[in-house]
């Protein structure tokens, strides 16, 4: 018996108090066991991965663009202009994907501030790979990095 | 992990532990290293973040910071050594378990295995998502990059041209990531991962150590076991969001107030530390701003139980600890942070419309009940139902010594939930979507503190008249 409880009949071996507390601890152990199994499964599934994660892969596309941009300041961003999809749900998903690409571009190109606008002098075009870039009016292509990435500069 | 990253954590934790050691009231409560270390680690992280912010205001995010912090560590070490030499040998009270027998081998083994499994899962999650989840890289990591890469122009990280990145969010997580990169000498994905691991496992350590000190070693192990087994806690901890970090500081506040409940008549230091911890919570997420008034109200209401002189003493000391962080947070909000996007889009008329719409109250209440009931579901059952069953099995410990604290903590947690409820009703534009995406995270912030409260209140296995095999009585 523990220091906190004297060995009385109501909490002696086999008493309801003891059974109840053992059940309480057993529940916690079972809960921990279920989570532990899930943890090991998660760890094992991650160990088998050989491909890099989506963000690192996406970010790699922007490495050269970053070095071609000014070190600081505000830069424009032009993504896909047509949200593909036949149903409203598909169009919403497509629009969300475009927004994600913009966020990823900002994440990759920090510390410049990337805004979805053609107001700044430099504009990064992030299009579907293989698609011909559409140059915004008043801009010229400063550099085409391939893979759908283009840097536009305002024409003098 | 580069040596620089390891050093960044070591300096932060060591400084925090030594500072806690320095202010620890030895004549009232004996130093107990597991609790002191866990508490010190939390304070060290908070302090490092604030120091870097202040440094950046003057010098920017420069490589001189680690050197300056190293000098501070040397100073704190000297202060702690002097304090130790002068410390009185006689100790009048002890912060030690009242059932100080060794914990049950079964529980210790289970907690050890759970820690290993959760650690493996945490690493697995990092491998799958080394940049964290969506909100992490688009808010916290992006801001850290903008500050670190920005050099002299680091303040562009708070541009209002990118409101979706929430540039008004407090700087705890981002600054610690920047700090880790300054120590490492460059950007590495290990930086945010280390910060996330420190907060996640630091929370488990603080919960376990505090309960071991204030209740019993077995109680600390059971609580740590539940926290380590809460699926969302580990997975979300590895996602680099700010919810687990803010949860650590909420917990640290409650732990310090529980210590104040035990030793507050002889020393104000624990209440001052509680104020500082609440300030760090405010410096971590905007939700911390609602925590401070909730704690204030809880402390005030505690006067009903403890008497007004004690409540006034507690509130004054808490406020003393809070003031420095209030000033730091105010300087950030006034100097750098743009207006909060949620507040910026609010209109009086629309808010009144929402506040007078009973459907919003019903929907929010329904989701609160549903998310609370299923929180921590892991296939076996939800953590909420598990703990309810555990509470029924063990029973409540009617302990006069923690009566004031227990009621105060319960009031604060209820006020926090009520505050979140009102914010959802009054401010959420797309209510179902926001409830779905944020409610579990808000509950997670309170989860370690709720566990602490529950296990402070529930009888320990020993008190429940149950001898676990392997447990050694005192």
Describe the fold and architecture.
The complex is a heterodimer of chains A (156) and B (474). By secondary structure, chain A is of the alpha/beta class. Chain A has two domains: 9-47; 54-154. Chain A is built from four helices and five strands; from the N terminus they run H-H-H-E-H-E-E-E-E. In chain A, strands 2-1-3-5-4 form a five-stranded mixed beta sheet. In chain A, helix 2 (54-60) crosses helix 4 (88-109). The radius of gyration of chain A is 29 Å and the shape is elongated. Chain A starts with 15 loop residues before the first helix and ends with a strand. Chain B is mainly α. Chain B has one domain (3-80, 115-457). Chain B has 20 helices and no strands. Chain B has helices at residues 3-23, 33-59, 64-86, 105-128, 134-150, 172-184, 190-214, 217-228, 231-237, 243-263, 269-282, 287-301, 303-306, 308-335, 341-344, 348-355, 358-374, 383-394, 403-427, 431-457. Chain B is globular. The two termini of chain B are 42 Å apart. Mean pLDDT of chain B is 91; it is low at 470-474. Chains A and B meet through helix 1, helix 4 and strand 2 of A and helix 4, helix 5, helix 8, helix 9 and helix 18 of B.
């Amino acid at each position: 018996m523990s220091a906190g409880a004297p060995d009385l009949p109501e909490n002696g071996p086999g008493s309801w108090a003891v059974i109840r507390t053992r059940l309480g601890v057993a529940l916690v152990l079972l809960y921990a066991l279920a989570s532990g199994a899930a943890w090991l499964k998660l760890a094992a599934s991650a160990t088998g991965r050989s491909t890099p994660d989506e963000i690192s892969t996406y970010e790699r596309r922007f490495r050269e663009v970053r070095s071609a941009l000014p070190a600081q300041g505000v830069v424009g961003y032009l993504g896909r202009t047509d949200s593909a999809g036949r149903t409203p749900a598909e169009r919403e998903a497509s629009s969300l994907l475009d927004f994600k690409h913009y966020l990823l571009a900002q994440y990759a190109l920090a510390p410049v501030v990337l805004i979805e606008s053609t107001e700044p002098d430099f504009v990064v075009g992030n299009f579907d790979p293989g698609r011909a870039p559409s140059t915004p009016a008043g801009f010229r292509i400063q550099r085409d990095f391939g893979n759908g990435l283009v840097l536009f500069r305002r024409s003098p | 992990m580069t040596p620089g990253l390891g050093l960044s954590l070591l300096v932060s934790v060591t400084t925090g532990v030594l500072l806690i050691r320095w202010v620890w009231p030895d004549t009232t409560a004996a130093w107990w290293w597991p609790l002191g270390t866990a508490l010190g680690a939390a304070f060290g992280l908070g302090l490092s973040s604030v120091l870097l912010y202040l440094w950046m205001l003057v010098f920017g995010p420069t490589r001189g910071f680690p050197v300056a912090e190293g000098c501070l560590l040397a100073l704190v070490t000297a202060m702690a050594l002097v304090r130790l030499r002068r410390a009185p040998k006689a100790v009048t009270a002890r912060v030690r378990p009242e059932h100080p027998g060794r914990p049950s081998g079964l529980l210790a083994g289970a907690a050890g295995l759970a820690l290993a499994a959760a650690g493996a899962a945490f690493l697995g999650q990092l491998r799958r998502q080394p940049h964290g989840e969506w909100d992490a890289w688009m808010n916290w990591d992006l801001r850290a990059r903008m500050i670190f890469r920005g050099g002299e122009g680091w303040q562009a990280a708070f541009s209002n041209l990118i409101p979706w990145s929430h540039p008004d969010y407090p700087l705890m997580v981002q600054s610690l990531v920047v700090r880790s990169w300054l120590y490492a000498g460059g950007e590495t994905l290990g930086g945010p991962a280390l910060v996330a691991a420190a907060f996640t496992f630091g929370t488990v350590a603080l919960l376990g150590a505090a309960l071991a000190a204030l209740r019993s070693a077995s109680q600390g192990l059971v609580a740590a076991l539940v926290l380590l087994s809460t699926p969302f806690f580990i997975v979300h901890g590895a996602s680099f969001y700010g919810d687990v970090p803010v949860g650590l500081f909420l917990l640290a506040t409650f732990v310090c107030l529980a210590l104040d409940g035990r030793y507050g008549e002889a020393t104000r230091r624990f209440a001052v530390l509680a104020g500082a911890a609440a300030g760090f919570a405010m410096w971590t997420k905007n939700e911390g701003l609602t925590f401070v008034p909730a704690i204030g109200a809880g402390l005030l209401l505690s006067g009903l139980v403890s008497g007004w002189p004690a409540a006034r003493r507690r509130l004054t000391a808490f406020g003393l600890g809070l003031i420095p962080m209030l000033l730091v947070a105010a300087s950030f909000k006034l100097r750098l942070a743009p207006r909060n996007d949620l507040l910026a889009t609010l209109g009086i008329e629309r808010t009144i419309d929402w506040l007078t719409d009973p459907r919003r109250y019903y929907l929010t209440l329904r989701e609160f009940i549903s998310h609370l009931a299923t929180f921590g579901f892991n296939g076996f059952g939800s953590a909420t139902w598990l703990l309810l069953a555990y509470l029924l099995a063990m029973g409540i410990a009617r302990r006069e010594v923690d009566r004031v604290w227990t009621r105060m903590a319960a009031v604060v947690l209820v006020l926090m939930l009520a505050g979140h409820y009102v914010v959802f009703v009054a401010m959420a534009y797309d209510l179902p979507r926001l409830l779905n995406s944020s409610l579990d995270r808000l509950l997670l912030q309170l989860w370690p503190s709720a566990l602490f409260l529950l296990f402070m209140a529930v009888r320990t296995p020993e008190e429940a008249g149950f001898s676990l095999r392997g447990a050694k009585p005192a």
